[in-house]
Amino acid sequence: MTTVAEGAKLVRVHPEKVLEFPLVLYSSVTCPLMLENITSSTVAFKIKTTAPRGYLVRPSSGIISPSQTREVQIILQPLQSVEQASQSHRFLIQTTLCDNSVEQLPKDFWQEVNKEQIFEHRLSVIFKQETPADTNPGSIDLSKGSLHPGSQSASSSIITSQGVHSGDIELKNKYDELVQYCLALEKQSNELKGEAAILREKLEKAERNVVNNSTQGAQGIEFWHVVAMVFVAIVALKLINY
Q: What parts of the sequence cross the membrane (predicted)?
């Protein structure tokens, strides 16, 4: 097995130092991470983050065949506010050599690896605000808590002056209005369903009454038919006897 000093050349990471995400609210964003195995042996890797609830890493661990490249998807979960972008997020990539015959890492693989044989590569995260072409783009460096060239500081006042904070408030207000509208529609739908159920019940009751009345009417007609036939028979007998 290799040592940490030698392990520094196990993989080539791109991007090498920083993962950049656009500063977008209420939407997930994906940043591809490329791991290139620059050795003649199979390399095992594992990726960790200081904000496990804020990101999905697919895959978070695996193997890379000799001279091959593995793409990892770093998926940022939707931000609910600009303030969430001010937190310091970092990623840690751990790599080590493994047997070339290994096709899938066993669950206890990393517990059995000697720490001296693991190389660690760290990445920071920044959020870049999307700005028009005629303005200086700025970005929030989460590892240092400062903005990159094109801005003056990492304070929320700078973000507000660039229009992000006001846009955040406006977007949130529209979102709240949409939620209230959907709730109102749901309430109206429930009321209409209740009225429809009442009307259906009244209609079924009316249909039952019509059927009952029709049955009673039919029975009355049959009775008068019998009476008429008896009367005709009596008259006929009297005529015959006469």
A: none
**6 falls within a domain:** no
Helices (DSSP H) in the chain: which residue ranges? 4-7, 109-112, 156-161, 164-241
Q: pLDDT tens, 182-227?
A: 777 777 777 777 777 787 788 788 778 777 776 666 565 566 666 6
Count other Cβ atoms within 10 Å, centred on residue 3. 12
Examine the domain organization and report whether 115 and 186 are in the same domain. Answer: no
Give the domain range for residue 193: 168-203
Q: What is the pLDDT of residues 2-53, one digit of tens each?
A: 444 444 579 999 999 999 999 999 999 999 999 999 999 999 999 999 999 9
Radius of gyration of the chain (CA): 39
Same domain, 17 and 113: yes
Same domain, 21 and 123: yes
